Each structure stands twice: as structure tokens, then as C-alpha cells.
What does this fold into?
Amino acid sequence: MGFLQKVFGSEQEETKGTNFYEAVESRRSIYGISNEQVISDERLKEVMEHAVKHTPSSFNSQSASVVVLTGESHKKLWDITTETLRKIVPEDAFSETENKMNGFKSGYGTVLFFENMDVVQSLQEQFPSYAENFPLWSLQSSGMLQHVIWTALEVEGYGASLQHYNPLIDEEVKNEWNVQGNCKLIAQMPFGKSTSAPGEKTFKPLAERVSFYN
It folds into this structure.
């Protein structure tokens, strides 16, 4: 079953959009995760490739890319992050930081999100009237990709959260996993089988956030 079919259901279903809305609603920050495999790595690859291929980008720039780490590579990422933070976090406060890193490390994998800044700069040169907007549009596209992958992982049975230890770990990460070119690390998404429920979420009145005019 393809990703869209799994999310939306078959075309014969009268309410085929319902599962999409449920998936968006169910996507939450999950910090309690284990390294238990929920889907095959082949399925995980299919989900990632579908998300990267079909998430929109300004001028169809396709500036986004992901690096998916599992196994020892996943663990190494959080070891790198831990040791980087050890240098800047006060010693008497570091145990809490280390516990947090170990929580991410206990998951099944991590998705690294990158943006190719050479592509962004090329668009700035080609369309100078919009030059100042392209870095913003690049981030918007990355945000959409993060949400698509986050929601897809939820659909597949994994819990995830979004982290930002860039730019502290950028160079070491790029060197370790051979990330070529002028690629900027945007975010890290550790994921795994959920071992805890998300916290309570409150919502502002929608009347303050949504307006309609006719």
C-alpha cells in the first residue's frame, strides 16, 4: 500500500480525507522512544523518498535533502551532540542535558534536514527582484518537508520530535556523513517506537487565528 493510499484510504471510501486529518492531528512531539523497529528499512526509505519528492518548494527549486541515520550512525550523531554540548554546558547542569541526549539516542533513527544554499543563491541571482525572499522560502519549504515526514512517521507507527542543535554540530555532521556542497543543517528529528504519551496540548480560540471574508 502506497503512502498516500495509506493516509487517505482507497478512492472508494466516501470520507477518504478523514485519515489525513487524523494523521495531522495525531502528529505530536514524542520524547519517550525506543529502538524497536516498527516498519522495514525498505518501507522507511520509501516514505522518505516520497516525502522529499512531493513536498513543494519555491520555483520548484528542490533545495531540500535528508540524511536518515539508523543503527550505529544514529547513536553516533547523539554522541557527537553530547560531546559538543559538554564543552559549553556548565558541569553542574550537564547531567540533565546528557539524559536528554540519551533519550534521543535510545530511538531507532534520526532524520537530518538540509537545505542546499547554492540552489538558493542561484535563484537569488536569476531573480534579483525576489532575492531577499528566497532564504525565507527555502526555510518554509524545509518546514513543510519536516511536517510531511513527521506526520508520515506517525502514520507508520513511529513517534518523533524536532530538535535544533545546529549550527553547533554542523561541520562534524557534514564531515562524518559526507554531506557535499553548500548544504545547511536545518533540523534533526529523532524517531522510534513511542514509549510515552504526548503531553497535554492547549489551543487558542480559533476565532483569533482564522478569518473569513466574502
Observations:
- The longest strand covers residues 183-194.
- The helical segments are 3-8, 18-26, 41-54, 71-86, 94-105, 117-126, 134-156, 170-176.
- Strands lie at 33-34, 64-70, 109-116, 158-160, 183-194.
